[in-house]
Amino acid sequence: xxxxxxxxxxxxxxxxxxxxxxxxxxxxxxxxxxxxxxxxxxxxxxxxxxxxxxxxxxxxxxxxxxxxxxxxxxxxxxxxxxxxxxxxxxxxxxxxxxxxxxxxxxxxxxxxxxxxxxxxxxxxxxxxxxxxxxxxxxxxxxxxxxxxxxxxxxxxxxxxxxxxxxxxxxxxxxxxxxxxxxxxxxxxxxxxxxxxxxxxxxxxxxxxxxxxxxxxxxxxxxxxxxxxxxxxxxxxxxxxxxxxxxxxxxxxxxxxxxxx
Length: 260
Fold this sequence. Notes:
Layout: E1 9-15, H1 22-29, H2 32-35, E2 38-44, H3 51-57, E3 61-64, H4 71-85, E4 89-92, H5 103-111, E5 123-127, H6 140-157, E6 169-172, H7 173-180, H8 192-200, E7 205-209, H9 226-247
Parallel strand pairs: 1-2, 1-4, 2-3, 5-7
Antiparallel strand pairs: 4-6, 5-6
Helix pairs in contact: 4-7, 6-8, 6-9, 8-9
């Protein structure tokens, strides 16, 4: 447990120039049903707007990068923070308001629910595309990309994943420890490639329906020509992960190791 508090859950939120969204999100996270079960950590990735001051003004934990390190690096540093402070679970969500806070208790409960064999999930994905999920508009290029990523994961692991790029995830402590180690996590776009990695290594992964909303303010990290670069990089990374684990046997057995 984290010293000085009974909370075992940390919510990690990477943020880059989210002054138009972050205050509303923090207000929602300050609701009693959330505040009673979780602490909030904002990973401010060298924002040039008022993100830093808004978070400090609301008295939440914040780590501010001097240089922009990228989405994945912000998350990984947050994992290290969670380990140092003794949290048992992490839920990661975006700062742009797309991930409704009503998902947090659902994911937290799922992390603590054993299956019929008495085993607990290592990763819980909040999915936009399961029965029970809220309606979510998707452009044709994104549909194409997500369909390709689903197919690659199915081909590589035998598992059907409805939402392979969801940023709303719950993690057990042993996954947080694994992700925090060198070369175990993508420093830019940890999405379908990381899901492929964790399935191949034998970690237990489940999906739950989620409530999500389209971004209304600010600029997405997938704007402009970035989606094309992202898609090419993700395809390469998924293939590299499969080769690394299936052929080169990298990190095989990691899911069987006990937490130290």
